[in-house]
Design goal:
The longest helix is centred in the C-terminal third of the chain and has 20 residues. Helix 2 packs across helix 12 and helix 4 crosses helix 5. The strands form 2 sheets. The protein has a 5-stranded parallel beta sheet with strand order 7-6-5-8-9. The chain has about 325 residues and is α/β, with parallel strands linked by helices. The protein has 2 domains: about 160 residues, 3-Layer(aba) Sandwich (Rossmann fold), CATH 3.40.50.1370; about 150 residues, Rossmann fold (3-Layer(aba) Sandwich), CATH 3.40.50.1370. The protein contains 12 helices and 9 strands. It binds phosphoric acid mono(formamide)ester. The site of phosphoric acid mono(formamide)ester has 9 residues, from helix 3. Phosphoric acid mono(formamide)ester binds next to helix 3.
Length: about 325
């Protein structure tokens, strides 16, 4: 037992102040995050779901864009670790008085926070903040760049369901070009040895995406027939770039994940979606709520994954505490 705890502590060694993206992490660092998340998932099944790991630490959620799942699960995760949590609603903060992100971050640091969790519409916002601050920064989604904890919870769910990542084939379908979820998933899955297929209308495939180690399959039925899982992205029709794209119904006909499509393929295919879902646009209600869907399990796993992210970056003296 003592040896096992020692091994767990060794495994949880973490040297990074921040979690900014999966591109910059090694396979071992990703595995460390996933294994730590697995320990925390066990904690969430206990009668008392709280551990003292981050007692005395203050975590600030600084969200410049709307969020339900990410913001709430970071808050739940921080509370389960016994940290104090402060949520800043930017529309009611000095951001409205033109305060820059950097100044806001430096003031939060001056207020003695230990970790800032930031979501911003500009790619690189989290990295910029991390360069100017001594405290930890966790990226909760920056523009089209990365959404590391979303990809980690997707991969965690996939591994939980399939028992492995190496050797699996995962199709990501939808707006790949504008998706931070797609980018983080591609970096994470390929590092762990999965094959990634991207499937989308040509205008939504980023140039040179193959250099990230993925293959492009234009036909969704063909992509699904090769896949163990499909990660369905939200179609962001509010974007100008999509105004030229044929109407929603046409997209649904060509790329929508329907029960008929699922039935034509391997019945064990997992259906994932980062949310929020556009029912009848990229996925049918029958599939979203059906037996292949793990969408709500992804949301639940987000708590353990975010507990792991906060715990590892905290670099706290009490990191050696048993969890
Ligand atoms: N998946 C995701 O980032 O959802 P929210 O925008 O609700 O946080």
């Amino acid at each position: 037992m003592k040896k096992l705890k020692q091994k767990n502590r060794e495994f949880r060694k973490w040297h990074k102040k921040d979690l900014l993206g999966l591109r910059e992490l090694s396979k071992e660092e990703i595995e460390n995050l996933l294994q730590t998340a697995a320990s925390f998932k066990e904690v969430t099944t206990r009668q008392i779901k709280k551990v003292p790991a981050l007692r005395g630490k203050t975590i600030v959620n600084l969200f410049y864009e709307p969020s339900t799942r990410t913001r709430v699960s970071f808050e739940v995760a921080a509370k389960r670790l016994s940290a104090d949590v402060i949520n800043i609603a930017t529309e009611y903060s000095s951001v409205r008085k033109s305060e820059t992100l950097n100044d806001t971050g430096r003031n939060i640091e001056a207020l003695k926070a230990d970790i800032i969790v930031v979501r911003h519409n500009a790619a690189g916002a989290a990295a910029m903040l991390s360069r100017h601050l001594n405290i930890s920064v966790v990226n909760a989604g920056d523009g089209w760049h990365e959404h590391p904890t979303q990809a980690l919870l997707d991969i965690f769910t996939l591994e939980e369901k399939k028992g492995k990542i190496k050797g699996l084939t995962v199709t990501i379908v939808g707006d790949i070009a504008h998706s931070r979820v797609a980018r983080s998933n591609i970096w994470g899955l390929t590092k762990l040895g999965a094959k990634v297929i991207v499937c989308a209308p040509e205008i939504l495939i980023p140039p040179e995406v193959e250099k990230m180690g993925v293959s492009i399959v234009a036909d969704i039925d063909e992509a699904l027939s090769q896949s163990d899982a499909v990660n369905v992205l939200r179609m962001q029709f509010e974007r100008d770039q999509l105004s030229a794209f044929p109407q929603k119904l046409e997209y649904f006909k060509k790329y929508g994940i329907t029960q008929k499509r699922i039935e034509k393929t391997n019945k064990d295919i997992l259906v994932m979606h980062p949310g929020p879902i556009n029912r009848g646009v990229e996925i049918s209600s029958q599939v979203a709520d059906g037996p292949n869907s793990v969408i709500l399990e992804q949301v639940t796993n987000g708590i353990a994954v975010r507990m792991a992210a906060l715990y590892l970056v905290a670099g706290a003296k009490n990191k050696d505490a048993d969890i």
